């Protein structure tokens, strides 16, 4: 753990992500609440989720190669700058009381598309900089900071939204992007690209489009080469889709079941954030004790049970407690998944392998996200929560399927 905190680059990355996610969490919560109140239906939130996902899905098969080819720090800075400018433009419109729903959808699409390139890029960058024996600790710090920042922001915006409005929230988000950009600028100097060991058939296509697609196929081949990695990817994709779809449900849950409004929404996010932060205390112990897939099974079962119970918790305190349990389980399983992947995947393949997993998770999200919104509006929140709980349960089952864990040891990937 001391090695992580002593590393200048990792310190700046941790600060950048915590600050940035505070703004992003406030943005997401404010836009969700604004659209729910403006339209009065969860279907609008389903459309938001769908529109955020489709462009990213179209790009994901291609961006993995870019992440593995280019300097990951430079990519992150470009993504931060682009998303920050989009948010600033919409913030100005909101402060002038001229913002329209379609503009919020457009902003969400652009920001989400950037995020789905940003996140695997940051993870790959952290893998580059982290000592081999410290992956669990670096991921614990990263995910705790991100979860805590994102969801404490969701809690904060629930209490201040009525005072500063959507425009004020978006301005805060823009300011956090400025801080994040500066932090990444200070991570290191110069251009650093991970060395790519290239197979013969790709070398023959050195100057053609075929090389690009050959590099794309390498990621798919690597995942298929290990039953363990296939099952880990399935669990991660199911977990990711369930977590994203849950974004549709928190605001309606507070409004329709708890009757607590924006303040209740804030308390739910606060419960999740506290659980995520507390999970840092015992995450490393659980992964040592139960190994990655055992930890994954325990946490997926916990999330599944919690989400089946949530619509029957008509008391705010009980809902907050279940969100806290869910946040804690999410923190632990997120570290188990990402650190296990870092241990197995060579640096030069990390961007591609992650994008394949995220593509599968987003495909499930697109397939089910709109359906969950419609079910929540027309049938009931209990059934919608049950769909999410079932996804967590399927991830739990995938974690139980026997598979021999591959030998830990990544291919040499020097930085040129």
Description of the structure:
The protein has helices at residues 2-6, 8-39, 42-69, 72-95, 101-129, 135-185, 200-204, 209-224, 227-245, 250-257, 261-278, 283-309, 316-344, 350-378, 381-400. It is mostly helical. α2 (8-39) crosses α6 and α4 (72-95) packs across α6 (135-185).
What string gives the helices and strands in order?
Answer: HHHHHHHHHHHHHHH
The main pleated sheet reads as: none
**Shape call:** globular
Measured between the Cα atoms of the first and last residue, the distance is 27 Å
Structural class: mainly alpha
Strand content: under 5%
Q: Regarding quaternary structure, how should these chains be classified?
A: single chain
- Enumerate how many helices there are, as a single number: 15
Rg estimate, integer Å: 21 Å
Low-confidence stretches: 409-416
Mean pLDDT score, rounded?
84
Helix content: over 70%
How many β-strand runs?
Answer: 0
What's the quick description here?
By secondary structure, the chain is mostly helical.
Features:
globular, mainly alpha, 0% strand, 416 residues
Describe the SSE topology.
Layout: H1 2-6, H2 8-39, H3 42-69, H4 72-95, H5 101-129, H6 135-185, H7 200-204, H8 209-224, H9 227-245, H10 250-257, H11 261-278, H12 283-309, H13 316-344, H14 350-378, H15 381-400
